[in-house]
Amino acid sequence: MGSGAVELYLPGSEGRPVPLSPGFVREVEDLAGRMVSRCYQCKKCTSGCPAGFSMDFQCHEIIRLVQLGARDEALRSAAIWLCASCRTCRERCPNDVDPATVMDCLKVMAAAAGVPLGRRRVRTFHRAFLATVAALGRAHELGSIALYKLAVPGAALDDLGLGLRMLSRGKLKVAPDGIKGRGEVAAIFRRAKARETRLRRRFGRAGAVEGRGGHT
Fold first, then answer.
1. For residue 175, what are the contacts with CB-CB under 8 A and spacing of at least 6?
2. pLDDT digit string (tens) for 37-93?
3. Which residues contact 61 (CB under 8 A, 6 or more apart)?
4. Where along the chain do its domains lie?
5. Does domain 24-116 have CATH number 2.40.160.60?
């Protein structure tokens, strides 16, 4: 490697370097409004992340992938969809990188580009949850669960016993609560839809990124 070019090797890459896009970090910084390049890998975000145990890449590793321009690996990672947006990482970050916002940005870019997702159930749950908010103006747990179960083949009876116990103890409401200002919520979704259309035009060129298989 006499040219001085940076090469990135990751577990599972079978000894082949990961393709790098030098301008990727600038794209993410522009969309997220955060200086990802400020991260110096102190790992405070990862050490406080409550969802880290389930992620394929840890929080600081996602940030490093962005810094290095590993677009494919960052956008097809399951970690960006498993992030709970609790903002613990934001509070712990000494440089105000705000990894949670970066994760949200990567989700937007991945969805806009049509990147296949190995853990499809994660995105299915996101869609089910947002569908209930769009329809009702607020979250409705039972509605989200029903939409999710209907969308996942063979999942209809999963956790049925737990669901019945929660219903019997009043932990799940059958009917959603009404709210005021449902029109304002609908307007938020319309603006988000318009923004999504713009982002699809902007990032659609990345749609050929190959997803990881084998996760459910």
1. none
2. 999 999 999 999 999 998 999 999 999 999 999 998 999 898 998 898 999 999 999
3. 46, 79
4. 24-116, 120-195
5. no
